[in-house]
Design brief:
- The structure is a single chain.
- It is built from 20 helices and 16 strands.
- α3 links the parallel β3 and β4.
- The chain is of the alpha/beta class.
- It binds cobalamin.
- The site of cobalamin has 45 residues, from α1, β3, β4, α4 and α6.
């Protein structure tokens, strides 16, 4: 019997700050396989959207799944929207095949109704997609007339949210070469309360941890068969369930995997002991969602930790010899000249932490910030939020605080402003050509001005890489 086939398309073409492996595709491929379907993975970066018509003609799929990861770049200083490109992709698919069109993804999950309307997709899956896709494909193969629209994830979905991803070797190698890492998932869900954040909308608030054995099996497979030595845990926040994380790290160590990895962390509980255990299991890079080092602002964002805890976490990383980066947001609700200075003062003491400052907070419907922004008269409730809109505290703009930040951090190697990204691109490209893996931001600390001095700096850093 001929098995039905699904073409899985990653529509993402963004390559800044780095090309990001579409971790959804191998998961969806595994889900399709469980439902008795074959799959082919198509990646807009690797294969190019121009060749999508050929792939459709060659594969003659019985269904097409499109993964919509990004809607916009959430950068208020240089806003980009990807929506038109996604709509072009789905219309192209529509013109070339009558097969059911299924959409999903993290970006999709924030604006499911709007994207269903804009793409005219037959089916949409909000949140974790494996079980929902497997269920839908089984029904379609059985000839069941599934009503078009959003598929509500079944309550059982969380329980079997994890399948063993079916990686496409070419795709893994492409992203490992260009982006220096492969994304892997260890848990789904985020119970935290950050006022502006979409993660609970995408993944839900209840946390489901994946079996550590399965996580490490996947790493072992990617390391052994494809030579992947650097991973990024794509969990909303990695340190949510301490025992699970330590068990995973111990297992990596026990199996003797020669791998390094990074992840997003929240400062609370980032003790030296905990970091030490993770480091023994390969942790090299901690990326902290700090947002601010002013207690007033941390309370406004409902971050659930204090400025002192954030500073302590950065120090603990330094003391354990783990690279540490902190993301900051300036200009959110309640930001004033004083709170900006508080953050800058506290950051000054942390010269081995790399800071990535952003301004303004992207307002998403369904978040607490959305309600606050409406109440404050910053936005109209029924405005179109798929177009990026940002919350800026009035006094932040009036007091020209971003200029204050820029002038205070000018010349500091450990501050990377959004406008610096393009300047560092040659150094990053150079380090990648030398085979360096990982996020590389720790090397930016020693970067210089023009391309030549960047290259010299890169040479001085040596080719050994940050891979153990
Ligand atoms: C980890 C992460 C990063 C890391 C990636 C590291 C790496 N090497 O992989 C880094 C820091 C590099 C990063 C960068 C960016 N990110 Co980011 N990132 C995330 C995060 C936390 C997880 C993404 C992930 O990989 N999840 C795991 C995979 C397996 O899940 P998934 O892709 O969602 O797929 C599942 C479901 O969505 C569904 N699904 C997906 N596709 C499909 C398709 C079909 C047909 C079906 C049925 C189901 C389905 O099933 C999958 C399996 O369960 C999300 C937030 C979140 N919690 O989702 C933001 C998120 C995706 N990022 C976002 C953004 C904006 C960016 C940047 C543009 C930010 C910037 N200006 O730098 C860049 C873009 C980079 C790029 N080249 O694309 C936004 C996108 C929303 C938006 N506003 O557009 C998100 C949602 C965060 C947010 N602000 O809300 N990111």
């Amino acid at each position: 019997v001929k098995r039905p086939k699904i073409l899985l398309v990653s529509a993402n073409t963004e390559t800044i700050p780095a090309p990001v492996y579409p971790a959804a595709l191998p998961i969806l491929a595994a889900a399709a396989s469980e439902a008795g379907w074959d799959s082919t993975q198509f990646d807009a970066n690797l294969h190019g959207l121009d060749s999508l018509p050929e792939s459709i003609a060659a594969e003659r799929p019985d269904a097409v799944g499109v993964s919509i990861r990004n809607i916009d770049n959430t950068d208020s200083t240089d806003a980009a929207s990807y929506l038109d490109s996604h709509i072009r992709t789905t219309s192209l698919i529509r013109r070339r095949t009558g097969a059911p069109l299924i959409v999903g993804g993290s970006g999709f999950s924030i604006f499911p109704d709007e994207i269903m309307r804009l793409t005219g997709a037959d089916y949409g899956v909000r949140g974790a997609g494996a079980s929902a896709l497997a269920g839908l494909l089984s029904d379609l193969a059985a000839g069941i007339d599934v009503p078009r629209g959003l598929i509500a994830p079944t309550p059982a979905a969380a329980g079997n949210a994890f399948v063993a991803p079916l990686h496409d070797g070419d795709m893994v190698l492409h992203y490992y070469e260009t982006g220096g890492m492969i994304g892997i998932q260890s848990k789904i869900g985020c119970p935290r309360q950050c006022s502006y954040c979409t993660y609970p909308l995408i993944e839900g608030r209840s946390v489901v941890c994946r079996d550590p054995g399965a996580i490490v099996d996947e790493m072992e497979h990617l390391a052994g068969d494809l030579g992947v030595r650097y991973f990024f845990f794509v969990d909303s926040a990695f340190n949510i369930s301490r025992e699970h994380e330590e068990e995973t790290a111990r297992l990596i160590e026990k199996r003797g995997l020669d791998v390094s990895w990074g992840a997003f962390f929240t400062p609370r509980g980032l003790s030296r002991e905990y970091l030490h255990t993770l480091k023994r299991g390969g942790l090299t890079h901690v990326e902290l969602g700090v947002d601010s080092l002013s207690d007033a602002m941390l309370a406004s964002y409902r971050k659930g930790f204090s400025a002192a805890e954030a500073v302590e976490a950065c120090r603990a990383c330094g003391e354990e010899g783990v690279h540490c980066a902190a993301y900051l947001i300036f200009g959110g609700r309640g930001e004033t000249k004083e709170t900006v200075h508080e953050t800058l003062r506290a950051a000054e003491a942390l010269d081995s932490t790399v800071f990535f400052p952003f301004t303004g907070v992207r307002i998403y419907p369904g978040t607490r910030l959305f309600e606050e922004a409406v109440a404050d008269g910053v936005v109209e409730r029924d405005a179109d939020f798929i177009e990026p809109r940002f919350y800026f505290a009035r006094s932040f703009k009036e007091d020209r605080c971003w200029e204050v930040v820029r002038s205070r951090v000018a010349g500091k190697r450990n501050w990377i402003l959004p406008e610096d990204y393009s300047g560092f691109a040659p150094l990053v490209a150079y380090l990648r050509r030398m085979g360096r893996k990982g996020p590389l931001w720790e090397n930016l600390l020693s970067g210089g001005g023009d391309v030549e001095s960047l290259k010299k700096a890169a040479e001085m850093l040596g080719g050994a890489g940050n891979v153990r």
